[in-house]
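COMPLEX REQUEST
Ligand: 2-phosphoglycolic acid
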Amino acid sequence: MRSYFIAGNWKMNMTVEESVSFIRNLHEAIVNMADFPLSQTEVVVFPPFTSLYAVKGLSNIIRIGAQNISYGDQGAFTGEVSPLMLKGLAEYVIVGHSERRELFRETDEDINKKLKTALRHGFTPVFCIGESLAEREGGATFRKLETQLERGLAGLSPDDISRLVMAYEPVWAIGTGVNASPEQAQEVHIFIRDFLKNKISHPETMKIIYGGSVKPENTCELLKKNDINGALIGNSSLKVDLFSGIIQLSVSLVR
Ligand code: PGA
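STATUS: Structure written out below.
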């Protein structure tokens, strides 16, 4: 039987008050889905750091993650948020999002350090990789993804790798309204799973989720693909009706 991991990345949106009311309303919406299968649908929301404390404990269904993590535990890292500060506030952390890579110049080496730190402190990283439009058009998609995988996962044990959630997020699909086609996404997800065959013993159980302009209209066709185990959602996670609509659709697919 299938299960899905549905995650909302709020990015730099939502005040504390907005976050609290969103989580309350989303919780209500999920509770009202009479057939919501807790064991087969994992819902995770990534609010901004400033809202994490306020949303703590508001829902026993919605899990909470942080959008970033420092690779240092403490000390002179102005503006950074350490794993020690996130303990008890977040279970998941996004690592390697293309906005962090592009706008904040995070390298594969930084991302590798963040993955190690997050794992060492017991968080579940959602490790994002993806190619740019130029790379896709230039036929360099798989080379780029392989590099990001090799460098990002360098030095991680098979156990560590098994604990990750992998997210394929083509940069050209993020925030553009143009999603990867289900076939394009499936092709990459198979590639990622094949890559993991050399690293872990059960790549078939690895959660590999897709992100990039996921909305209610394209959710089903994406999630129906065999190797797509869920979605990482930006814009459509900012409205309770859209996000809960996507959750409802994923529920309908596991029934
Ligand atoms: P989007 O963002 O759904 O707005 O394309 C996805 C993401 O950045 O994770």
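REMARKS: The first strand starts at residue 4 and ends at 9. The two ends are 9 Å apart (CA to CA).
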